Amino acid sequence: MFVRNITTTSGFLLMGFSDNRELQILHAWLFLVTYLLGSAGNFIIITITTLDPQLQSPMYYFLKHLSLLDLSSLSVTVPQYIYNSLEGSGYVSYTQCMLQVFFFTAFAWGEVAILTVMSYDRYVAICLPLHYEVIMSLRKCIWAVAAVWVSGGISGTLYTATTFSIRFCRAKIIPQFFCDVPQLLKLSCSNDYLIVIGVAGFLSAVGFTCFIGIVLSYVHIFSTVFKMPSAEGRSKVFSTCLPHLFVVSLFLSTGSCSYLNPTSDSPTALDFLFSIFYTVLSPTLNPVIYSLRNETIKSGVRKLLLNTKFTG
């Protein structure tokens, strides 16, 4: 790898996964294929939930915004890594790193928020069906989505402002394939990073509250489902709830392991694997997961791929 004198430049060096040139090229192609598949899947979800009249309920409205967040999140980290791998240098400028931190944390927080809103939507639909149209009215759904995007912007701003207000004393080498906040904190002088820890603690507390809300929603949902006399009714509920539960578990578990575990000077293969799961695989797999057991989505995908006109 071509290594610049990173201690005297204003940028950072992303070490990626390997110093071997052949492996760098291989990783670039693997990430490119994954990025194209993830982008196509999320774009299809966004398209059919916009055009198909059968997919205009609040559940699919929220799913569309989850796909928008996934597509945006993929575009923040993966193209930069592909470019760095093909170029043979992991150098990113100070501004590029700052923008990557802002957009990645904003979209990641937005995903936590939209998953929480989606769990509440499923709770109302299954446990309070007679009040669903009132509670989940179009106006309230729009306000909920607006809150998701605004809260993401606020968290991204807080993380970026505090992270880049610290002084970086050590060699600006990041053993990761993107500008990861925990790795950036290791480069700080003395106790400069404590304010970032405070912001992270506050957002973690809010995130944990969201997690508790999701858990409570599903406790009520499954309690209601198991009381249903109809096996067909239970199957229909599981087809919409289980994919959401899987997505929540995959994203929150891998993200938490990466951000809450102490960072080391030499990240293990498991550390890299966790980072790939919540930055690349999770947003890539979400469209597939939501489509597997949902007949309405599969019908919309078939219409789109077969170029069939969407009708009511």
Q: What tags apply to this protein structure?
A:
312 residues; mainly alpha; 10 helices; disordered N terminus; cell membrane
Question: Could you explain how this protein is built, in words?
Answer:
- The chain has a single domain, classed as Rhodopsin 7-helix transmembrane proteins (Rhopdopsin 7-helix transmembrane proteins).
- It has ten helices and three strands, in the order βααβαααβααααα.
- Strands 2-1-3 form a three-stranded mixed β-sheet.
- Helix 8 packs antiparallel against helix 9.
- The N terminus is likely disordered.
- It is found in: Cell membrane.
- Amount of beta strand: under 5%
Distance between the termini: 56 Å
- Listing every helix as H and every strand as E from the N terminus to the C terminus, the arrangement reads EHHEHHHEHHHHH
Q: In one word, what is the shape?
A: globular
**How is the main sheet built?**
3 strands, mixed
* Rg over CA atoms: 21 Å
CATH class: Mainly Alpha
Total helices: the number is 10
Order of strands, main sheet, comes to 2-1-3
Question: Strand tally, please?
Answer: 3
Q: Any idea how many domains?
A: 1
Question: Uncertain segments of ≥5 residues (pLDDT<50)?
Answer: 1-8
- CATH names the topology as Rhopdopsin 7-helix transmembrane proteins
Mean pLDDT, as a whole number? Answer: 83
Helix content: over 70%
> Would you identify the CATH H-level superfamily?
Rhodopsin 7-helix transmembrane proteins
Structural class: mainly alpha
Subcellular location: Cell membrane
GO molecular function, one term: G protein-coupled receptor activity
Protein name: Olfactory receptor
Membrane topology: Multi-pass membrane protein
